[in-house]
Amino acid sequence: MNGQELSKAYFEAYGKDMLAQFPELAGKVAVGLAGAGSECLGFDDELSQDHDFEPGFCLFAFVDEEGDGTEKRLSRREAFALERAYAKLPREFEGFARSRMNPVGGNRRGLVDLSAFLKDAVGTPDGQLSAQDWLRVPEQGLLEVTGGEIWADPGNIFTPVREALAFLPEDVRRKKLAGCLLLMAQAGQYNYPRIIAHGETGAAQMACFAFAENAIHASHLLERRYTPYYKWSFRSLRGLGPFYAELADDLEGLLTSANDPETAESKAFVIEDMASRVIGRLMDEGLTKANCGDLEKHAYSVNDGVADGGLRNMHILSGV
Questions:
Q1: How far apart are CA 69 and CA 234, in angstroms?
Q2: How do residues 187-196 score in pLDDT, each as one tens digit?
Q3: What are the phi and psi torsion angles at 113 (to 5°)?
Q4: Contact (Cβ atoms closer than 8 angstroms) between residue 199 and residue 258
Q5: Which segments within the chain are labelled E, that is strand?
Q6: Per-residue confidence at 8, pLDDT binned at 50, 70, 90?
Q7: ∠ CA(184), CA(187), CA(188), 5° rounding?
Q8: Segment 208-266, tens digit of pLDDT
Q9: Are 18 and 152 in contact (CB under 8 A)?
Q10: C-alpha torsion 112→116→121→126, nearest 10
């Protein structure tokens, strides 16, 4: 049983009856499991159960600190009542124990103030982002808001926010993609062979890391998916489909092999081959008008396709 399944089963067993005690709050609360943690993104496994793995669920609500109980916002008194009811739910379920509520905040389960949650994840208390915001917000933060599952949202308080943040605006996607492609070109196609020629094997491996990091980001952008925190990035990349699973294998080979002359020559070939495959995807999507094997030229061509002039004229690396 993974984290989502455990949490939903716990909600079905105890959460529904608890919420039924507060019919007047039904339109002010969304219920589900979202936020930080591998269990929220479907990346958890047995090893994940050594920390932050527990039965429980999130009660997402905008809490009105003024206490006037405005429409679709919980008053502080209503929030306290929900917190107390949640704290009284059974502490053990299916062999797992709930952690104790943190009196100074930071809980991942129970009542979650949406304003604070959104501010922490994407930088604004309502989830509304300007073009500049979209460029700056870490994609892991966007995943924390849009990932996981919401099982009930009768008042439609969280669902519209999740839908609005489901993925980057197209111009922002292109701007970020252009930056990733340029960094791939610099680290892999240009710098790696030169660093090897200088005999700097440690720096050569750092070039491989930079190439891989940006290749993973570019791949997610091509598939209109957010890139997760680095420890889940390869798992997520393989989940994008067979093309990307092969790419993941090649990238893993780059990162785990040495840089002696013979291996370095093979790695340089693999880098060029991967660049060629990524260029093929760009051309398939009509994202580039360049016609060559140089990722840098394709990066600038992708940037040329950004419709908003202000965004297009920003530095090509402004999104990464």
A1: 45
A2: 999 999 999 9
A3: -70, 115
A4: no
A5: 30-33, 58-61, 63-64, 74-75, 92-93, 96-97, 110-113, 149-152
A6: very high
A7: 75
A8: 999 999 999 999 999 999 999 999 999 999 999 999 999 999 999 999 999 999 999 99
A9: no
A10: 110
Among candidate residues 295, 34, 16, the one with its CA nearest the CA of residue 154: 16
User: Other C-beta atoms within 10 Å of 95: how many?
Assistant: 8
Instruction: Please classify residue 292 by burial: count the beta carbons closer than 10 Å to its beta carbon, then call 0-12 exposed, 13-18 middle and 19+ buried.
Output: exposed
Rounded CA-CA distance 152/263 in Å is: 54
Stated length of the chain: 320
Q: What are phi and psi of 56, to 5 degrees?
A: 150, 170
In angstroms, rounded to a whole number, what is the distance separating the alpha carbons of residues 75 and 135? 34
Contact by Cβ (8 Å): 171, 308: yes
Residue type, 168: L
For 190, the token pair is: 């240009």
Contact of 27 with 158, CB cutoff 8 Å:
no
Query: Residue 104: what pLDDT?
Result: 39
Mean pLDDT of all residues belonging to the chain: 91
Report d(CA 238, CA 219) in Å as an integer: 10
- Per residue in 71-112, pLDDT (tens digit) is 789 999 999 999 999 999 998 887 777 776 554 344 678 999
Separation of CA 246 from chain center: 22
Tokens representing 199? 């005999």
Please give the average per-residue pLDDT across 7-19, as a whole number: 94
Sequence-distant (≥ 6) Cβ neighbours of residue 248 within 8 angstroms: 234, 237, 238
- Residue at 51: amino acid letter: H
Q: List the one residue out of 199, 209, 137 whose CA is nearest residue 172.
A: 137
- The residues, any chain, with a CB within 8 Å of residue 242's CB and separated by 6 or more, are none
